[in-house]
Design brief:
This is Thiamine-monophosphate kinase. The chain is an alpha+beta fold. It has helices at about 15-25, 30-35, 80-95, 115-130, 185-195, 205, 210-215, 220-230, 245-255, 270-280, 285-290, 305-315, and strands spanning about 40, 50, 55-65, 100-110, 135-145, 150-160, 175, 235-240, 260, 295-300, 320-325, 330-335, 340-345. It has a seven-stranded mixed beta sheet with strand order 8-10-7-11-9-12-13.
Length: about 350
């Protein structure tokens, strides 16, 4: 790290780099936990050393969050940013049916992110790591001119030859989701409106707390992914990060099949429905195109539907059948409440829109 900053935002010499790293990381995870996670050598050297297993394959994923693109300081606290940066990666491992194991964290911090703010970011990061049993094993830290950038690389494992991919959907199968969608988008909508409210009224009082938490503290569907792998019944899988319609399109194109989603079957959160109604927002837009829900969408043979629902119910997890797979040109179709069908556009968040 070169040219970082102290608690007042003043530049500190580069020799303090390792002191800052120790301050943010030391004592966060016990030696016993790190040993159980297979960590031979963690933070403090040029590279981490992790023991392997002959019956597992490694899963690697990386996500980057940029200030004013993925989050704002008027909608997310510092700890929320750290938590969500790791949770988004955890969801990628869940979407393969895998188990998250270790993570590397790279941060570029501007002067506005002083030592105390960075420590709170790491509080959230380690809170998520503890929840999902992830060892933080290293990374990189640099200065940045203006916006904070947080990039997390996650490492997971999955049984050899068992990773669930997007390309396994087949005609005659059912489409499912592991929870309602649209909550995070509604939460963001409410949080952004905070700027127009009196400071005497908190946004948490204005919108359901579940929506706020869905945006700030997402809950990746790790156990759901493991059930789908353990039973062998999940034929394709994807996590809803960019929007339900977008992720359904990814499965359709990877599988060369048509996905038909039924509007009446889409799970609706009561909190979301009441808030959308109060705001005059079309509920379906948030549900299909909102993104950052981190539930799973996938496909299953109809013969296994009932047993899979029972397995999920036994573990206190939701599962909703929302459509079916058909043969034909790869596309996603919505069967409306009136029974008519219409193509669904490839909606969702796009960093590089045309035009």
């Amino acid at each position: 790290m070169k040219g970082h900053y102290d608690e007042k935002g003043d530049a500190v010499p580069s020799q303090d780099e390792f002191a800052l790293i120790r301050d943010w990381n030391d004592g966060r995870q016990s030696e016993e936990f790190l040993d159980s996670a297979g960590i031979v050598l963690g933070i403090g050297d040029d590279a981490a050393v992790v023991s392997g297993a002959s019956d597992r394959e490694w899963l690697f994923a990386v996500d980057t969050m940029v200030e004013d693109v993925h989050f704002r300081d008027d909608t997310m606290g510092e700890a929320d940013v750290g938590y969500k940066a790791l949770a988004a990666n955890v969801s990628d491992i869940a979407a393969m049916g895998g188990v998250p194991r270790q993570a590397l964290v790279s941060i570029s911090a501007p002067p506005s992110w002083n030592g105390e703010r960075m420590k709170r970011l790491y509080d959230g990061l380690y809170e998520c790591a503890e929840r999902y049993g992830i060892a933080i094993i290293g990374g990189d830290t640099t200065s940045a001119p203006r916006q904070l950038v947080v990039s997390v690389t996650i490492i997971g494992t999955v049984e050899v030859g068992r990773a669930i991919r997007r390309n396994g959907a087949k005609p005659g199968q059912s489409v499912f989701v592991t929870g309602p969608t649209g909550l995070s988008a509604a939460g963001l909508h409410g949080l952004l409106k905070q700027r127009d409210r009196s400071k005497e009224t908190s946004v948490e009082e204005a919108i359901p707390q579940r929506l706020v938490l869905s945006h700030r503290r997402p809950a990746p569907s790790v156990r759901a992914g493991r059930i789908l792998l353990e039973t062998g019944w999940g034929s394709s899988l994807n996590d809803v990060s960019d929007g339900l319609a977008s992720e359904a399109w990814e499965i359709a194109e990877a599988s060369q099949a048509r996905l038909v989603l039924r509007e009446r079957a889409l799970p609706v959160s009561g909190d979301l429905a009441s808030y959308a109604g109060a705001q005059g927002v079309r509920l379906l837009d948030w549900m299909l195109y909102g993104g950052e829900d981190y539930v799973l969408i996938g496909t299953v043979d109809r013969i296994h539907e009932l047993a899979l629902k029972e397995r999920f119910r036994a573990e206190g997890l939701p599962l909703f059948i929302i459509g079916e797979v058909e043969s034909g040109t790869p596309e996603v179709v919505l069967e409306t409440a009136s029974g008519t069908r219409k193509p669904l556009r490839k909606g969702g968040y796009n960093h590089f829109p045309k035009g």
